[in-house]
Predict the structure of Rod shape-determining protein.
Amino acid sequence: MLDFLFGLLSHDLGIDLGTTHTFVLVRGKGI
């Protein structure tokens, strides 16, 4: 469930703050 919520947050942040922020979040997740 946490991964699901994190996925939604990452997607929303990508739209709101730009792809750079999403890239940082994705890297932090280990992908």
Residues 2-17 form the longest helix (16 residues).
